[in-house]
Description:
By secondary structure, this protein is mainly β. Helices cover 0% and strands 60% of the residues. The protein contains no helices and 13 strands. A seven-stranded antiparallel sheet has the order 1-2-7-8-13-10-11, with no helix packed on it. Strands 3-4-5-6-9-12 form a six-stranded antiparallel sheet, with no helix packed on it.
Amino acid sequence: xxxxxxxxxxxxxxxxxxxxxxxxxxxxxxxxxxxxxxxxxxxxxxxxxxxxxxxxxxxxxxxxxxxxxxxxxxxxxxxxxxxxxxxxxxxxxxxxxxxxxxxxxxxxxxxxxxxxxxxxxxxxxxxxxxxxxxxxx
Length: 137
């Protein structure tokens, strides 16, 4: 399973990778510049959180490692790894319906509330990595 040793990095294609679910103690990176934004990540084996310009973007319980996280106009896409099944929350557009795909299969449609947050579960315990795609329905 891949981890992001530097905790947060920009990828050549404009995506970001972040988090290290193998850490026993909390670690963070603040004021990381990426495409005009300031990113902040806090991560360890119990939780991984990502903020962009002080606003919520991603959280997982327990902690995960996230590869090739890409925001698009219609949603987000990333690959996630971890040691146990995880509850993931992503920050999207308020009161909007999205379709969630895990490993290429639709898990259904969900609507965000006033906060724009959408929660989903991924089974990581028996998987090396899982792809997640959330797009406007």
